[in-house]
Every structure is written in structure tokens, then in C-alpha cells.
Amino acid sequence: MTKTIKVGIIGAGMAGQAHAFGYRNAMMMLSHELKVELYAIADPNMALAQKVADRYGFEKAIGDIDELIASDVDVISVALPNFLHAEVLPKVIASGKHLFAEKPIGRNTKESSALLALAKDSKAITGVGFSFRRLPGLAALAQAAREGVFGEIHSARAWYLADYAADPKGALSWRYSLEQAGPGALLDIGSHAIDALQFVVGNVNEVTSANLVTVIKDRPKAQVGAIGHGASTSTETGPVTNDDIAHLSTVHENGAVSQVTMSRIAHGMPNTLGVEVFGTKGSGMFDSMSGGEFHIFEAGLGEAKFNGTKRIITGPAHPYFNDVAAMPGAGVGTGYAEAFVAEIQEFLVAVNTNEPMATGFAEAHQMMKVVDASLESAAGQKPVKL
Questions:
Q1: 262 backbone dihedrals φ, ψ, rounded to 5°
Q2: What string of DSSP letters covers 164-230?
Q3: Ranges of the chain with pLDDT below 50
Q4: How many CA atoms within 13 Å lie on the side-chain side of 229?
């Protein structure tokens, strides 16, 4: 029997709102029956918390995070700045409540390792929000790789390009601080690119080279209460202490080699994550800018003059599609918003069945090991094994 799951969210910023959207729409799931009670949004910024609660249909707003943790909710989502994860996530785990954390869990492997140990000792479900894995096209590409469609994968590339930081007047938020955020593009958006690459190709076990570059070295300080990536009118500036651009060369456990490119200052690229793989039998590619499709080439099929790369439109045959699409038919499209619905649905199913979620703290820690190895490689200009 499906029980009603009572939900609270800590953090009313952009990621918290995406979680709220996911919970709000989770009950459209067809493959499982879900019942969700939208209880509270908790954030010290009460005005923002109330606005988000009203928008997404939550019962109330709470200004005290500890009050929500002590409440009778079954599930808590945490979507806070990176530097707060090491403080807040242990409290939620200690409460025994099921926990869904926005990526990354902490700023480095020291923090992610400690959190992983706590999660292993907990009987509750602990999941992490690598939302891009739930895009049907990327999930289908990973499925094709697992089923051997490409043969033995020998090389790959992944990217995450965004322009949210391209404006030098963009406010100096916590995201631009090595102390508060950890690495910049390498972790903020690179966490998704690295996870997507490992999802399709397999885990990385060596970073052979890494280059991290900061192009915009100073930014105007943020105004009190500001959220998001908006410009600041402040005349007072401060230093950017993490990277705008990151380039990695990596080797995977299966011997495949890959390159990963991340940039938060890529003009003309508002938000694109992609993975391209090459193997002994073919190749495949997914780009989130064309999220309703993916591409596959299979070598040796028919005459060369008629054999080319196939453009496959996502539909009911592909993972997650039926549970998030507005209509159950190919071509209606799914995208960034539906990925949040799908990850929340997967988490709630894990809570209902008491089975681990595909993206737990172990996967988040594995991604963080690649990030830390990249930092070490860039600093020493040398290969670093995980």
C-alpha cells in the first residue's frame, strides 16, 4: 500500500524551487503510485520562503531550519550553498528522515567522504540530485552503452557550457568563492558533466591533465538578500577565487580516454550539457540543448552510402519519458524541468520501496574524487590517480 509522504524543503533559492517543482509534479507518475503532502519550505529569508511555498502549494513557510528537521515530515530536501552542506546534512541524517540533497555534497572529498560514512550508517534513503541523468535522451544513451551498441568504448568527450557568469557585472555570490563553493565551473556545473560522463562511459580512475582558468577576476559585491545570477549595481568589488573555465583529460577504469570541458562564461551557450562516445562498433551523442533527441551511429549496417548517424526522437520507449511527459507520445519533448520531476519521482519510489536510489552519496563522492584529482593535477601540472 502506498503511503502519503510528507515533504519539507530546506532552501528557497533556485535549486530549492526546482525541488519544489519536482515534488509538486511527482504524482503524475504512471509506473508507480505516489502520494505527496507538500508541508513546508524552510529558509531564513522568510519572505522568499513564503513566496516559494505559495507558488508551489506548500502548506507553510518556516524561518528556522532546525524546526523543519524536528518536525514530523518523512522526507527533507536540502538545496543550500555548498559550504552549508557539511553543517546541515549531518543534522538531517541524524534525524532519521529520508534525505534528498542537491549536488554536490560538500566542497571536497573530505566533506563528501564524511557525509558518505554517515549515509552508510543510516537506515534512511539518501539520494543526490544529478538531474541530467533523468533526461530520457541521456538515459537512453547510457542504456545503449551498457547494452554494447557502441562495442568497447575507447574515447569520449563531455561538456557543460553556460553563460550565467559571462557578465562581469554579475554579483559576487558564494559561487565565486573557493572557500564557500569549492571550485567554480569545475564543481558547480562540472559536477553534472563529470557525473553524466561516468554514467555513460564508466568511472574515471585518473586525471591525466587539468587546466583551470579565471577570466573575470573581480566582481561587484552582492546586495543583501539577492539570489540567482543577476547583476549587481554595487561599486564595491571583491576577488573571484575559483575557476571560470576547466578543461580535463581523463582515463576511465575500462581504459577509455575522455576530455571534459566546463565554462560558466560561454557567450551564446545559455545552458548545455552533452556527452559523445566512440566505440569499436559505433558512436552516440546527446546534447541537452536538443533535449528531446539523441544520436547513434552503428558501423557496418547496410551500404555505406545510405548508412549514417540516426537522429532518435525520445518517446515512451525511453527511460523516464512516460512518467514526466505531458502526453505519452514521441516528439512532445521533455527537458530541464521534467528532469527534476523524474529525479524526485525516483527518490520517492526509493522511499516507498526502501531500495537505494541510483544516485546516492557514493556516486556524489565518486564525482568529487574526480574534482579533487583535477585540482591536484592543475596545481602540479601532473597526472593524478583517484
A1: -130, 135
A2: TT-STTB-B-GGG-HHHHSSSHHHHTHHHHHHHHHHHH--EEEEEEEEEE-S--EEEBPPTT--TT-
A3: none
A4: 15
To 10 degrees, what angle do helices 361-380 and 190-201 make?
110
Reported for 54-61, long-range contacts at CB under 8 A and 24+ positions apart, including other chains, are: 55/17, 55/20, 56/17, 56/20, 56/21, 56/23, 56/24, 57/24, 58/9, 58/20, 61/12
The C-alpha cell of 66 is what?
Answer: 532546525
DSSP 294-350: EEEEETT-S-GGG---EEEE--TTSTTHHHH-SSSSTTS---HHHHHHHHHHHHHHH
Residue type, 284: G
pTM strictly above 0.70: yes
pLDDT single digits (tens) 132-161: 999 999 999 999 999 999 999 999 999 999
Percentages helix, strand, coil for the chain, rounded to the nearest 5?
A: 35, 25, 35
> How far is residue 13's CA from residue 10's CA, in Å, rounded to a whole number?
9
Give the pairing type, strands 204-213 and 245-252. antiparallel
Q: Cell triple for residue 162? A: 553556460
Strands 35-42 and 4-10: parallel
Which three cell numbers mark 197? 560522463
- pLDDT (0 to 100) of residue 192: 98
pLDDT of residue 2: 75
Handedness of CA 358, 336, 225, 12 (dihedral sign): negative
- Helix H or strand E segment including 286: strand 282-287
Q: pLDDT tens across 242-292, in order?
A: 999 999 999 999 999 999 999 999 999 999 999 999 999 999 999 999 999
pLDDT for the residue 117: 98
Measured at the CA of 61, the angle between CA 55 and CA 64, to 5 degrees, comes to: 145
The cell for 275 is 556527452
pLDDT of residue 361: 98
d(CA 378, CA 244): 14
Segment (H or E) for 120? helix 109-121
